[in-house]
Amino acid sequence: MAQPEPWLAHYHYDGLRYDEMFRAQNEARPHYAALYAHLLQEGSKQWRGLFNEVDRQIRDHGVTYNIYGDSEGASRPWMLDPLPLIIPADEWRQIEEAARQRARLFNHIVSDLYGQQNLLTQGQLPPTLILGQPAFLRPAAGVTPPQGVYLHLLAVDLARSPDGRWWVISDRTQAPSGLGYALENRLIVSRLFPDLFQRLRVRRLAPFFATFRDALSALAPNREGPTHTVLLTPGPYNETYFEHAFLARYLGFPLVEGSDLTVRDGAVWLKTLLGLRKIQVIVRRLDDDFCDPLEFRADSTLGVPGLMEAVRRGQVLVANVLGSGVLETGALAGFLPGLCEKLLQESLLMPNVATWWCGEPSAHQEALSQIHRLVFKGATPQRRFGPIFGEDLDAAGCRQLATTVNEAPTEFLAQELVALSRAPVLKRHPEPRLEPRSVGLRVFAVATPSGYVVMPGGLARTASEQDVRVLSNQRGGGSKDVWVCGESLGLPLSLLQRPVGVGDLVRSGAGLSSRVVENLFWFGRYTERTDHLARYLRVALSRIAEYAEAPLEWAGLAALGGRLGLLADAGDQARMTTGLLNGVADKNRPGSLAAQILHLSRTGFQLRERLSADNWRTLHALSYTLEQQAPIPISLLGAIGLLDRAVSLCMTLSGFALDGMTRDPGWLFLALGRRIERLQFQTQAIMEAMKMPSEANPEWLLEVSDSIVTYRSRYMARPEWLAVLDLLITDESNPRGLVFQTTSIGHYLEQIAALLGPIRAQADFQVQHRALLALDIGQEFRPDSVVLRETLHYLHTAAGVLADQLSLQFFSHVGQSVWVSA
Q: Between 367 and 693, whose confidence is greater?
């Protein structure tokens, strides 16, 4: 018998569980044959390239998943195996039909539970099972959503038993996750195997997302004009925030938090720069009880007060409906076959794994009698318990589990332990090899006016290790792309959307939420702040490396370092070096470059759906540079190299803002943030340089201001104060000059005022701008000029006041009086 490939030596086919790829040892199933042949041809030496490409794309795209309690937090990279889970067309048709039937069944069930409740009064469901769980929201009773659709998106978790049959493990009906990750997996994996992707005729995902987007518009209430849809997120610290931002950008929906929305006169409105814009559809990623603190959890700061009342009045569609979480109890599983017969007059196509709800006395006793072969869980998501595997318990453990269940039997269920199917994953350490992992499949169905449509693929989830029995991303599990192959694409790109007319054209970004614009404003400020800190630190550390003793000009550099919060005092050269190096790499130091990059990254993370892929890659490269190349303590040479890289990346970010963004109000505020921040830094730098001894060389000031090349090309001589101050203050062609900043700020303020009305601090700032222009160059452009120093001080203060006034006027919505209905 031929020896297996070394990379296959750890993949043992045992025949006890269904293997997705192999039907016998080293014998691939027909639909996996092409992939297996590709692996045999390439060999493990080529896998390093696959790993590196997956890592690069996940890093560049910023694909993250927050494992709570993990040290990496929200920056933890998404775990993706390069090998897809492949499902043949004939098998997929069965899964698709079962998922479509399940969605219809659940829609009927939730409609009855919040409507006539015939299922409860006629004994089809125990009232205790429904009315006794926190997920049943009484304020939602009697509310009928538009066109009777309660479930707009359903996620069903499937697992395959040893005989090859698919079983339902659980359902997600509140705010199902995974759609965005499934799409991102596809974007990455399809590029790894482009030839295989084409040869297997893998069905595309884009038509499904177009259907989802258009169906929401078609189901929206009050459709006289354009439909405004938003995606409601708990915020950037949620475990799946990347997905929220990615889906919002892909579908073209504004990503909003609860504070971005308000309820007025029974309708939901988005707070925008122009005022309040009416919202017809909310795709929520919040669980039911967090959505409205007035009617559900009073301690929730994530939701929208009054949202339930707007739903009652039929003014807004919330997908999925509030209260749909009642269907997520696994205890429903045993009742579904009978409910399917009653409500649909059909047999249930794909049953759940055998389930015993302990709230039924007979099921309770039966479950405890076979405790060693079952898995015990909480009956509802709110009851955080388990899973507890009976086979792991000794006699004392069994007694303790039985006692716990007996105390509140309605809160527990037991399920048959299924030996999940296995799929191959590529492991990179210590040597590349193929290993088996337990795998499950999450499929998605969306409602349209003509019925449910199932995504041709899904999200495959894999266990973290070979002996792990629970599929959970929170427990370190991974994921796979899912390829449904062997048929034509089927669906057209768009099913429901009406053609765009002249009246539908949009050319203004004034509908941006105030929070997004505020983040853009601060993104501009943090970008500029990072840039000028990096430039200052590079100049200062270069001077330290160049001179054995501090030159006269060091007084100005040190004073500016103190104003920037990098140096407590001048001190000796060793102490200054230490302070500056910490100013590069110490994240815990408020004024450091590392801290500013962290602020910039966090702000950018909240703008994830607004940033282009290239912009995001540059931002991530800046963070990655700091994380990978800034150990503490950092060497002088290492710090200067890092600062070179940081300055280059900041210039790239500025280039995207200058040449890659639409000139809408969001861009105006971003540009204002940059100019205000640069104006404040430049005035600081000039004022501190003017304190140097008169014989000190101001060349460092030109370097910090990125103006040394211009000066040398004009004067070809040692820098002199008159020429330096003229270049850095009044030269309108110098993008680092003060007049350039004040003129640009005035221009942006005029544009904003034309769109949004008068700006409170505009007049005061223009006074300082005119004072700057009125300076007598011959008399005042010298380092000892009191008039120049006072003018710079007032200008610096005016810039800070302007920034504060902009925030108060446009981002707080105090005294909001502007209303926009379309």
A: 367
pLDDT of 822? 41
CATH of domain 354-416: 3.30.1490
Q: According to the 3-state scheme, what is the secondary structure of 363-418?
A: HHHHHHHCHHHEEEEECCCCCCCCCEEHHHCCHHHHHHHHHHHHHCHHHEEEEECC
β-partners of residue 388 are 376
pLDDT digits 0-9 by tens, 484-499: 997 654 444 443 444 5
Q: What are the residue ranges of helices labelled H in 260-314? A: 307-312
631 CB-side CA count, 13 A = 4
DSSP helix/strand/coil, 82: coil
Q: How far apart are CA 623 and CA 593, in angstroms?
A: 11
Question: Rounded to the nearest 10 degrees, what angle do helices 786-810 and 514-546 cross at?
Answer: 150
Q: If residue 481 lies in a helix (H) or strand (E), which one and from where to where?
A: strand 478-485
Q: What is the pTM of this model?
A: 0.84
Closest CA to 582 of 599, 594, 597: 594
Residue tagged 């045993």 (tokens): 334
Tokens of 75: 């920056």
Per-residue pLDDT at 456? 95
CA 800 to chain centre: 31
Residue 86: which of 436, 487, 481 has the closest Cα?
481
**Contacts of residue 717, Cβ cutoff 8 Å, sequence gap at least 6:** none
Token pair 């995974």 is at which residue? 178
Burial code of 235-249, b = ≥16 C-beta within 10 A, e = fewer? ebebbbbbbbbbbbb
Give the model confidence (pLDDT) of 43-90 as tens digits: 777 788 888 899 888 887 888 877 655 555 556 788 999 999 999 999
Distance of alpha carbon 423 from alpha carbon 482, whole angstroms:
12
DSSP 617-629: HHHHHHHHHHHHH
Question: Residue ranges of the domains in the chain?
Answer: 85-331+421-488, 354-416, 514-820
Residue 41 is predicted with a pLDDT of 85
- List residues bridging with 85 in a β-sheet: 482
What number is the average pLDDT over the span 129-157?
93
- Confirm if 293 and 299 have CB atoms less than 8 A apart: yes
**Cα 200 from Cα 86, distance rounded (Å):** 10
Whether cis (ω within 30° of 0) applies to the bond prior to 305 is: no
Question: Residue 585's pLDDT is what?
Answer: 85
* Residues 6 or more apart in contact with residue 795 via CB below 8 angstroms: 679, 683, 738, 742, 768, 769, 771, 772
761 SS3 class: coil
Q: What is the DSSP string of 23-45?
A: EETTEE-GGGHHHHHHHHHH-GG
Paired with 462 in beta bridges are: 439, 478
* The pLDDT value given to residue 502: 44
Distance CA 777, CA 123 (A): 92
Half-sphere exposure of 612 (CA within 13 A, CB side): 12
Q: Which amino acid is located at 328 in the chain?
A: E
| Among the listed residues 31, 333, 329, the one whose alpha carbon sits nearest the alpha carbon of residue 196 | 31
pLDDT of residue 507: 45
What is the per-residue pLDDT across 213-233, written as a single tens digit (0 to 9) for each? 999 999 999 767 788 999 999
Q: Label residues 265-277 b or e (16+ Cβ within 10 Å = b).
A: eebbbbbbbbbbb
Mean pLDDT along residues 454-474: 80
Please give the Cα distance from 7 to 12 (Å, whole number): 12
Q: How many residues does the chain have?
A: 822
pLDDT of 149-174, one tens digit each?
999 999 999 999 899 999 999 999 99
* CA proximity to 712, closest of 720, 704, 537, 551: 720
> Number of helices and strands (H, E) in the chain?
27, 22
Q: How far is CA 747 from CA 57, 363, 740, 752, 762, in A?
A: 39, 74, 11, 9, 11
CA 468 to chain centre: 28
